[in-house]
Each structure stands twice: as structure tokens, then as C-alpha cells.
């Protein structure tokens, strides 16, 4: 039993929900605990309700920085606690007028109400999807060259070779599906419309940001360059099993263990393809060649597997396998030979 | 006769007959219409209403709708999910109106200015939120604001506050409990 549920027998579900809510945001929360959370959540609708209530509370406390009274506290919170007696801006609540912009509270929308008699649905389930009003779905494919796409919301996407995406920009959500390949997203900020990239196993929700998603079969990796993204494993509709990345981090999904690992990576290297270059930093030679070959009309191969220990650093122009092979002979103790239309690299 | 109709209505509205197990289909049909009209009071667009209704039922299914618990509990969950979804969309509608997408004549006809009663209630709500946040202990408030408003990660917060990551989690949990007690019962 995890720390969250310890000693919680007989405690109201809402107390447990709050502990889970706090726990799930912690990097210390283990996969086993997340599974335990799922089990707790599915145990009863009371638990689910308590957790939804907690989420509602959390969501409702949005925009505090805009409030005249709380704004200074929000700003002051950033100061490190070296001086623990750091002055909290103390202001009497009652002394404040109402001229500030109100904090966002739960919506009571004074908007006109369109009363339309809905046609009674007698079938449930999959049929809903057919009734759902949908924004048009647009498909973009890059096969032989890297493509740049501008979406109607102002976001731009760079598509690597052999990449296809669909985009459906709805009123409430911007849904992108990465069907295969690698794409670098530069998302136009629109907090009311989350930008969600579905890569089969992982669903990436971006909050105004620049990130890359790479999908190859069941393997998915997400690299964040700027801003913030959260990643949820698909099939987890409550979004609780999600992780957050900081810039420079890459999350990779391993289908064998069905789990994500997050590591600090060199985002510049991982996205250099989008600049027309391949950048390697101590990359194993075999992996570097595979990358070079993706873009090259001439294929490079290794003469013997024993060369795996060699590593490559440097940058190579995309698409020119010949020049890359030439450069390798200067950087490494290797020589090249043409054999059957291929460039074979062997030890010197 | 009239009496019978009223009884049926109140059963639907209050869900107080909801102790007998129901199949999902029955549950769906029973609440769909009332949920739609509940949502229409919060959302302007019928298509959005229907989308939220569908999404809410889908979430109920994903929470494992079953007959082991009384329908009234599922109903409460259904409405909570729908309200959460409507809330996140409602903000979008408001933002769009503020951005001035409405032609001027329309703005005058469909005034966005809140009525007196609504303003008072929003002010009271604002006061309660301020009091609740200011009522947290300074450390707890700081941790909460760093997480909720600045969207800092726990390790970042731990560094700023000079405490452990575990302590950050405790403060967040405490803040939630305290805020819920202060703000609980809001619509």
C-alpha cells in the first residue's frame, strides 16, 4: 500500500482524492502508485466523484495572478526562501475595493440560450461520434522531403520524411493525430483551446509551446523545447496518469514495459533535422548512419559490426550521404568504398 | 393524472428514485434531456451542449458505469463531470466575447454586463476566494501559488522554498483540503 492510502481507511473519499491529486503531480509518484490510484478511482463512483470535485476546485482557482489582492502574493511566491522571513505582502482583505478584475470563478454564463428540441437518441455508444459536430479534418503528408505546414490557428508544424498528420481544429480543442513519423510543433497560444497531439499511445497536451513528437510503430517519444506539455497515456480518459515535461526533457514510451521514461536530452540535437542538418554528439556510429540514410539517396553501411564502439560528433547537411561519408573519414579512423551502389565504411 | 405527471417529472429532476440498478442505456436516456437543459443554461451553443453531454457519458463509461452502485451516485458524477467540462468551455466563450468578436449592435442587444444580483454574487465569491487563499499558512500558500499559478514542478518548488519534494506534496494536499473547506458548497 502506498503512502497515499496509508491510514486512510474510513476517511472520506474527498480526503483521499486530495492526497492523490497532490501525489500525482509529484515526480516521486511511482508507476505502481499510479496503478493503485486507477484502482481506487475505479472502485466506486463516490471515489470518482470526489476526485472530479477536487479537479474542479483546482481548475476554478485559475487566474489568481490577475487579482489585485492576490496578485502581489503570486509574484512574491517566486522569491526564494533564503530569507525565510521574506515579507509576504500583507493586505487586509476588507480594505480592497472591487475595482480589480475578478478572479475567475466558475462560469455562470449570462449568454442567450438557444432552445432547440434535440432529436431523441435511442442508440448510445459509438453512434454519438457520428452525431458529434466536427471541424473539418485536414491531412498533411511529407514523403520525400521535409515539409512545413501552417495551420489555420497560426501554429506551424514541420514534418519530417515519411510523416503524416491530421489536424482538426475545433472550438474547444485542437486535435492533431500523428499517424507516423516525426513532427516539430510550434503551437500558437490559445489557452481556451488545448492543442492535443495524439500519437497512438501517448497524448500530448501543449500549453503554448514548441515540442517534437516522434512515432515509430508503438514507440513514441516527446521532446520539449519550450513551454510546457503534459503527456497522458491513451486509454486513460481522466487524464490523471499524465506526466509533465520541462524544456530539454524527452519522454520515451517503451511498449515492452508500457511505461514512460523521462530524461534530460539535447533538444537541439534531436530536432536538428528541422534545420536541414543532422547534429550528433557522441552518437553511436550505427545510429548516426541510420539517421543519415533516412535522408540520403546514397546509402551508407558498416563493413563489420565491431565498429559499433565508434561514436560520431558533428553536424552533417541533410540529404548528402556522399559528403557525410567523406566527413566521417576525417573524423574517425575509417575509410570508404563504393560497393553495389552503396558506400561501405570500414576501419582504416 | 396531473399528479402522476408531476411525480414523474420530479423523479427525473431530483433523481431520488435512483436506487434501483439501471442498465447504462436506461441511465443514458433518463438523464440526457435534463442534463442538456442544465447545460444550456451555462453554454450558448447547442452543438457545444451536445458535445459536453456526449463527452460526459463517455467519461461515465470510462469510470466503469455499473449496477453495483445506485444510479443517484452516478447521476451526481455525471453532473459534476458535465459541469467541469462546461466550465472549461465557458471560459473560452467568455474570452471570445471579450476579444470583441461581436459587432457593436449585438453587444448592445445581448449585453454582457452582469445583472445586479449576479455581480453581488461574483463579488462575494471573489471575497471568499481571497479569504481562503490568504487563510493558508504563508508556506502553504507559497507552495500552492507556485504550483497552481506559476505551474512550477515539485522539485522547482522544493528548491525555491528550501523544503523536500515530499513536503511540497504535503503542502499541496493541505492547501486543497483547506480551500475545499472554505470554498465548499460553491455552485
Counting copies of identical and different chains, the oligomeric state is heterodimer
List the chains of the largest interface with their residue counts. Answer: A-B, 81 and 92 residues
Instruction: Output the structural class of chain B.
Output: mainly alpha
Mean of pLDDT of chain A: 77
**Which parts of chain B are unreliable, with pLDDT below 50 for 5 consecutive residues or more?**
1-17, 94-118
Outline of this structure?
Chain A has 348 residues and is of the alpha+beta class.
Protein model, in words:
By secondary structure, chain A is of the alpha+beta class. Helices cover 22% and strands 32% of the residues of chain A. Chain A is elongated. In chain A, 31% of the residues are buried. Residues 83-132 and 236-240 of chain A have low confidence and may be disordered. Chain B has 187 residues and is mainly alpha-helical. Chain B has helices at 2-14, 24-40, 46-62, 71-98, 104-109, 116-134, 138-148, 154-161, 165-183. The longest helix of chain B has 28 residues, at 71-98. Mean pLDDT of chain B is 73; it is low at 1-17 and 94-118. Chains A and B meet through helix 1, helix 3 and helix 4 of A and helix 2, helix 3, helix 4, helix 6 and helix 7 of B.
How are the secondary structure elements laid out?
The complex is a heterodimer of chains A (348) and B (187).
Chain A: H1 13-24, H2 31-43, H3 45-60, H4 71-76, H5 127-131, E1 137-142, E2 147-150, E3 156-159, E4 163-169, E5 174-186, E6 195-198, E7 202-206, E8 210-216, E9 219-226, E10 229-233, E11 242-245, E12 249-254, E13 259-264, H6 267-270, E14 277-284, H7 285-295, E15 299-302, E16 311-317, H8 321-331, E17 334-339, E18 342-347
Parallel strand pairs in A: 5-6, 15-18
Antiparallel strand pairs in A: 1-4, 2-3, 3-5, 4-5, 5-8, 6-7, 7-10, 8-9, 9-12, 10-11, 12-13, 14-16, 17-18
Helix pairs in contact in A: 1-3, 2-3
Chain B: H1 2-14, H2 24-40, H3 46-62, H4 71-98, H5 104-109, H6 116-134, H7 138-148, H8 154-161, H9 165-183
Amino acid at each position: 500500500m502506498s503512502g497515499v492510502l496509508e491510514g486512510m481507511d474510513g476517511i472520506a473519499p474527498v480526503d483521499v482524492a486530495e492526497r492523490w491529486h497532490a501525489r500525482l503531480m509529484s515526480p516521486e509518484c511511482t508507476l505502481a502508485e499510479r496503478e493503485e490510484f486507477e484502482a481506487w478511482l475505479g472502485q466506486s463512483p463516490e471515489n470518482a466523484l470526489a476526485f472530479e470535485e477536487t479537479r474542479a476546485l483546482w481548475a476554478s482557482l485559475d487566474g489568481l495572478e490577475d487579482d489585485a489582492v492576490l496578485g502581489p502574493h503570486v509574484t512574491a511566491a517566486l522569491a526564494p526562501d533564503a530569507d525565510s522571513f521574506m515579507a509576504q505582502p500583507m493586505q487586509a482583505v476588507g480594505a480592497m475595493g472591487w475595482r480589480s478584475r475578478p478572479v475567475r470563478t466558475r462560469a455562470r454564463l449570462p449568454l442567450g440560450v438557444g432552445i432547440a428540441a434535440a432529436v431523441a437518441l435511442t442508440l448510445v455508444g459509438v453512434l454519438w461520434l457520428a452525431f458529434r459536430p466536427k471541424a473539418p479534418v485536414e491531412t498533411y503528408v511529407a514523403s520525400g522531403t521535409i515539409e512545413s505546414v501552417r495551420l489555420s490557428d497560426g501554429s506551424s508544424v514541420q514534418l519530417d520524411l515519411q510523416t503524416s498528420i491530421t489536424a482538426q481544429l475545433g472550438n474547444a480543442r485542437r486535435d492533431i493525430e500523428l499517424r507516423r513519423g516525426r513532427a516539430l510543433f510550434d503551437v500558437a497560444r490559445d489557452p481556451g483551446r488545448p492543442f492535443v497531439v495524439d500519437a497512438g499511445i501517448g497524448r500530448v497536451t501543449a500549453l503554448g509551446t514548441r515540442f517534437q513528437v516522434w512515432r515509430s510503430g508503438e514507440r513514441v517519444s516527446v521532446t520539449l523545447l519550450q513551454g510546457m506539455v503534459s503527456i497522458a497515456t491513451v486509454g486513460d480518459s481522466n487524464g490523471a496518469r499524465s506526466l509533465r515535461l520541462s524544456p530539454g526533457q524527452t519522454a520515451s514510451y517503451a511498449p515492452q514495459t508500457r511505461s514512460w521514461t523521462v530524461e534530460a536530452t539535447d533538444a537541439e540535437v534531436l530536432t536538428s533535422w528541422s534545420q536541414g542538418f543532422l547534429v550528433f554528439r557522441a552518437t553511436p556510429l550505427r545510429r548516426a548512419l541510420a539517421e543519415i540514410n533516412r535522408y540520403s539517396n546514397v546509402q551508407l553501411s558498416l563493413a563489420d559490426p565491431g565498429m559499433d564502439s565508434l561514436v560520431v560528433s558533428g553536424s552533417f547537411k541533410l540529404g548528402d550521404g556522399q559528403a557525410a561519408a567523406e566527413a566521417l573519414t576525417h573524423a574517425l579512423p575509417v575509410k570508404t568504398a563504393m560497393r553495389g551502389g552503396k558506400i561501405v565504411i570500414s576501419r582504416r | 393524472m396531473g399528479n402522476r405527471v408531476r411525480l414523474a417529472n420530479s423523479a427525473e429532476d431530483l433523481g431520488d428514485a435512483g436506487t434501483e440498478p439501471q442498465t447504462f442505456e436506461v441511465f443514458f436516456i433518463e438523464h440526457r434531456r435534463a442534463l442538456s437543459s442544465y447545460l444550456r443554461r451555462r453554454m450558448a451553443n447547442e452543438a457545444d451542449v451536445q458535445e459536453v453531454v456526449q463527452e460526459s457519458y463517455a467519461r461515465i463509461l470510462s469510470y466503469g458505469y455499473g449496477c453495483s452502485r445506485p444510479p443517484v451516485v452516478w447521476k451526481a458524477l455525471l453532473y459534476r463531470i458535465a459541469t467541469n467540462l462546461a466550465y472549461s468551455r465557458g471560459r473560452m466563450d467568455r474570452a471570445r466575447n471579450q476579444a470583441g468578436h461581436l459587432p457593436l449592435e449585438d453587444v448592445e442587444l445581448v449585453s454582457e454586463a452582469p445583472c445586479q444580483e449576479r455581480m453581488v454574487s461574483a463579488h462575494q465569491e471573489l471575497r471568499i476566494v481571497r479569504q481562503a487563499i490568504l487563510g493558508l499558512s504563508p508556506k502553504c500558500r507559497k507552495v500552492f501559488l507556485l504550483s497552481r499559478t506559476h505551474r512550477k514542478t515539485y522539485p522547482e518548488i522544493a528548491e525555491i522554498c528550501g523544503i523536500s519534494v515530499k513536503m511540497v506534496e504535503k503542502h499541496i494536499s493541505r492547501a486543497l483540503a483547506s480551500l475545499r473547506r472554505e470554498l465548499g458548497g460553491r455552485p
